[in-house]
Amino acid sequence: MLNKISDKTYYLSDQEDKGRPALGLVSGDHSSLIIDAGNSPRHAEEFLQEIEKLNLPRVEYAVITHAHWDHFMGMNEFDATIIVNHQTNDLLQRWLNFSYDDLSLQKRVSDKQMSPQCMEILQEDMPDRDNFKLRTPDLIFDKSLVIDLGNKKCVIETVESTHTTDSTIVYIPDEKVLFLGDCAYGTTTNGLFYFKQSLLMPMIRDIQKFDAEWFVLGHESICDLEEMDLYWKELIAASAAVKSASLQKAEESFKAQNKREPNENELFFIKAFVNDRIIKSQS
């Protein structure tokens, strides 16, 4: 079931147990646009079935927010113009050349080109995939693009991100809705989850320049402005406390700066910023 933000804007909730991110839908007078295409053809088909129930203009555009498999593996199911930024397009090239039979998937996992979760979901959701080939994106943009759906403009723009180097967001000005994909999350390297400390403030500035009241993230419920502001506040406070690869020193610094213990979220973020320092020291 699609969640309604307004008469023209919806999202399909994420499903953590199935590795499925949230997917967005925006409609104008003559066409509709989706944000992300799902983690498999089955995910995309279920999204399309829900869209059909609304009797909205046909989906003519699909924006892929970044080149992580759970956001694009369903894009073959959409008879629409697939939109990506240049960097996402470059990152997708290896996926376009993949074979998806069982032996090929197992080799990709062994070579660390694909996660075990990705392989398992594709095997379950795509039993007949020996001849599957991922389609090529249609529209490649640089920094920003505006799509008019008919009295409904969608601003598509690249942003700095602590999650990936190729993040795209979609902003609906008259709705004050911002689809963020996964851009506000951290990432994992060599088993360490971390936030890129140097990109935190550039990312926040990129996102806060939009006059938004509602935020749809890839793996969360919808957030209002107050919730997003709290998220930024906790991230900034945690980052300010981390000046080295020492967790103990970071916690002591946080207490000195804020006159209190870090809460659960802040402690999680402190550890993630410390991990960033550890990873940098190893490179």
From TrEMBL:
It comes from the Bacteria. SMART domains: Lactamase_B. This is Hydrolase glyoxylase. Residues 20-219 form the Metallo-beta-lactamase domain. The lineage of its organism: Bacteria, Bacillati, Bacillota, Bacilli, Bacillales. Keywords: Hydrolase. It comes from Planococcus halotolerans. The keyword NAD does not apply. Pfam families: Lactamase_B (PF00753).
